[in-house]
C-alpha cells in the first residue's frame, strides 16, 4: 500500500500537533512546514523550512501530498488582519497545484449569540467580532476555491480548544496559570451560562476519520459538540477534582484587570473581544457529524483534563 503524505502547517501548535500525532499513528508520512528548524517536532516528521505566508514555499512543501492541514495561527491573535487571509490563499494555491485536500480547524467565532441552539453547519454567519469576520472570510475563500474546482475542503468547527500543547487557549490563559500547580482556578463566565470546549485529540481523531470516508464532497463542513459545559461550572470543578483539592478556590476571572491590560497588550485585548462567548451560550450541534461517523470521538472529561494539566506542569 502506498504511504500517504500530509503537509501540516502549524505542526508545533496545539491542533497541528494533535493531528500530526494522529496521522503518524495511522502510518502517514507527515511533513511539517517550519520557519526555524525542527527542534519541537516529532522526530518521525519530515521538516520543510519555509513560511506559511510564502506561496512558493507552501506549494513546494505540498508536492505529492494528499492532505494539507491548515492549522497555522498567529500566536496570541497578533496580526490576524494582516496574516490570516494571505496564509489561506497560499494554502489554496498549493492545493490547486498538488491536488491535496485542505483540512481546516474551524471555530465558533463565525457565529454570534443569535445563531440558534444548537447551531448547524448551514446557519447564517453573523459574527460580532473582528476575528469572527476574518474567519468567515477565510472559509468563504475555501468554499469559492472548491466551487471553482481548485481545491477539496474539509472544515471541522469546534469549541474552545484544550489539551496537550494548547498554550494559546482559554484553558491555559484564562482558567489556570501554566507551569506550576494552580493556587486558584478562574471562571470566566457566570454560573448557568454554558460553554463549549473541544479536546484536541478528539478533534484530531474526528478529522482523520472524516478524511478516511469514501465519496466525500468537494466542500464539507462538520460541527463537533465536544465537551459541553452546560452550567458553566463543570470544567472548573473537574480541574479542582483532578488536582485533588476540592477546597481549591474557584474565583471569577477579573475582567476589569484584563480590560486594563488590554490597553497596552495584544493578547488581553483579543481575549476581551471574545467575552461574548462567556456571557451567552453559543453551542454547535453535531447531528451532521454523527450521521457521517456514527458517533463523535469523545474522551471522558476527567481524563482529558488530567492530560491537559500534566502537559504544562500543573500536576
Automatic annotation (TrEMBL):
InterPro entries: Epimerase_deHydtase, NAD(P)-bd_dom_sf, NAD(P)-dependent_oxidoreduct. GO terms for cellular component: cytoplasm. It comes from the Bacteria. Residues 6-215 form the NAD-dependent epimerase/dehydratase domain. One of its GO terms (molecular function) is aldehyde dehydrogenase (NAD+) activity. PANTHER family: NAD(P)-BINDING DOMAIN-CONTAINING PROTEIN-RELATED, PROTEIN YEEZ. This is Membrane protein.
Amino acid at each position: 500500500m502506498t504511504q500517504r503524505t500530509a503537509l501540516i502547517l502549524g505542526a508545533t501548535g496545539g491542533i497541528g500537533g494533535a493531528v500530526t500525532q494522529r496521522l503518524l499513528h495511522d502510518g502517514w508520512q507527515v511533513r511539517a512546514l517550519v520557519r526555524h528548524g525542527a527542534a519541537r517536532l516529532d522526530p518521525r516528521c519530515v521538516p520543510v523550512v519555509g513560511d506559511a505566508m510564502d506561496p512558493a514555499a507552501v506549494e513546494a512543501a505540498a508536492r505529492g501530498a494528499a492532505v494539507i492541514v491548515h492549522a497555522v495561527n498567529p500566536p496570541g491573535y497578533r496580526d490576524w488582519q494582516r496574516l490570516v487571509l494571505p496564509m489561506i490563499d497560499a494554502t489554496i494555491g498549493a492545493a490547486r497545484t498538488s491536488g491535496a485536500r485542505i483540512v481546516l480547524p474551524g471555530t465558533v467565532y463565525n457565529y454570534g449569540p443569535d445563531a440558534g441552539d444548537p447551531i448547524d453547519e448551514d446557519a447564517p454567519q453573523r459574527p460580532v467580532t473582528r476575528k469572527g469576520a476574518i474567519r468567515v472570510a477565510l472559509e468563504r475563500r475555501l468554499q469559492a476555491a472548491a466551487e471553482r474546482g481548485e481545491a477539496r475542503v474539509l472544515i471541522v468547527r469546534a469549541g474552545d480548544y484544550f489539551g496537550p500543547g494548547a498554550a494559546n487557549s482559554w484553558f491555559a490563559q484564562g482558567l489556570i496559570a501554566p507551569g506550576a500547580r494552580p493556587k486558584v482556578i478562574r471562571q470566566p463566565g457566570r454560573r448557568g451560562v454554558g460553554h463549549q470546549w473541544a479536546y484536541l485529540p478528539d478533534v484530531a481523531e474526528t478529522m482523520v476519520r472524516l478524511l478516511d470516508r469514501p465519496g466525500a464532497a468537494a466542500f464539507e463542513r462538520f460541527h463537533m459538540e465536544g465537551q459541553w459545559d452546560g452550567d458553566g461550572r463543570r470544567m472548573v470543578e473537574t480541574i479542582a477534582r483532578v488536582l485533588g483539592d476540592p477546597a481549591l478556590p474557584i474565583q471569577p476571572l477579573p475582567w476589569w484587570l484584563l480590560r486594563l491590560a488590554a490597553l497596552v497588550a495584544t493578547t488581553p485585548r483579543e481575549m476581551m473581544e471574545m467575552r461574548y462567548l462567556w456571557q451567552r451560550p453559543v453551542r454547535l450541534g453535531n447531528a451532521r457529524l454523527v450521521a457521517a461517523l456514527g458517533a463523535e470521538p469523545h474522551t471522558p472529561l476527567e481524563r482529558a483534563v488530567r492530560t491537559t494539566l500534566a502537559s504544562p506542569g500543573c500536576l
